[in-house]
Design brief:
The protein is an alpha+beta fold. Helix content is about 20%, strand content about 35%.
């Protein structure tokens, strides 16, 4: 991880927030006021967020054009919300190479760096440029029908190929490096990064992979097969999920944000991404501590936790 570049004039922060919750509104106003007081320019991507911050003379901000590159030139994308909001922010920040810093106002918030009770300290660290930047691996996703490229997209967490209707089964063939591995009926197949291993892939029964491990995951969801174990393959590998030509249509979803309808016979090709997502971190510490904290994992034995409740 690297520290941010210091001493840049005309500092600006892009604020991404979900304005539907009162807690988010209060947090956005507090952030805007502190950044304005520090002479840091503020951008938002929603007119609704600009309005909830208050009158322009209270904390002036600019509404960036979503059709352009709203994060370009910003020092940081500051996110107020949960993982869904952060993934939306990553979509804005990735092409500009701008780091993303999340404050969790949702539930688990595994990708976010700080919880809501640390908001004030988080903003002070932004003002003082006391944060470090880590690059997270992404995946590039290509959809083909025969020799024709139908769509290209990407994901930070995962690309999921799923049945398009509840009553149908997805018939899928999994290939790794051009070789077939297994074919089965299932609800879906998830192709995940290490970052995404604690998200949808985790819920589907996949392993937790430390984010500095250079690997790709393949996690079947509710597969009707004897061999449907999660796979962990090399970063250099090419994963292909083929929708059976005689089967039902499916849908590709990347990070829950970008969707592509899949006709029978289409292939979804997944490789390590060429462009990473940069995440800002406030505190140094191992991923193990984050895992234990976010999932409230028991780190004491059963007896250590219950001795005081035992008789005698």
């Amino acid at each position: 991880m690297t520290p941010p570049e210091k001493g840049r004039p005309g500092r600006e922060v892009l604020l991404v927030a979900h304005p539907d919750r009162e807690s988010t509104r209060d947090a956005a106003r507090a952030v805007a006021a502190r950044l304005a007081g520090a002479g840091i320019g503020l951008r938002v991507v929603d007119e609704e967020v600009r309005l909830l911050i208050g009158p322009p003379d209270a904390a002036p901000c600019v509404v960036a054009d979503l059709s352009g590159d709203p994060a370009a030139g910003a020092e940081l994308v500051l996110v107020l919300g949960g993982d869904g909001t952060l993934l939306r922010a990553a979509e804005l920040a990735r092409s500009a190479g701008v780091p993303v810093l999340g404050v969790n106002l949702g539930r688990v918030g595994f990708l976010t760096e700080a919880d809501s009770d640390a908001l004030a300290d988080t903003v002070e660290r932004v003002v003082d440029e006391r944060y470090r930047i880590e690059e997270r691996m992404t995946i590039d996703v290509t959809v083909t029908q025969g020799d024709e490229v139908v769509a290209r997209t990407w994901a930070l967490n995962e690309a999921s190929v799923e049945k398009s209707t509840r009553e149908r089964i997805l018939d899928a063939l999994i290939e790794v490096d051009g070789r077939p591995v297994s074919a089965f009926g299932c609800d879906g197949v998830l192709c995940s990064t290490p970052t995404g291993s604690t998200a949808y892939a985790f819920s589907a029964g996949g392993p937790v992979v430390w984010p500095d491990v250079e690997a790709l995951l393949v996690v079947p969801s509710n597969a009707h097969a004897m061999f449907s174990r999660p796979l962990v393959v090399s970063r250099e590998s090419v994963i292909t999920v083929r929708v059976d030509p005689d089967g039902s249509p499916a849908v590709l979803t990347c990070d829950g944000l970008r969707h592509v309808d899949l006709e029978p016979g289409m292939r979804v090709r997944v490789t390590a991404g060429r462009v990473p997502v940069r995440l800002a971190h406030l505190w140094d510490g191992p991923f193990t501590d984050r895992l234990v904290h976010k999932f409230s994992l028991p780190v004491k034995s059963w007896r250590e936790r219950h001795d005081r409740d035992l008789p005698g």
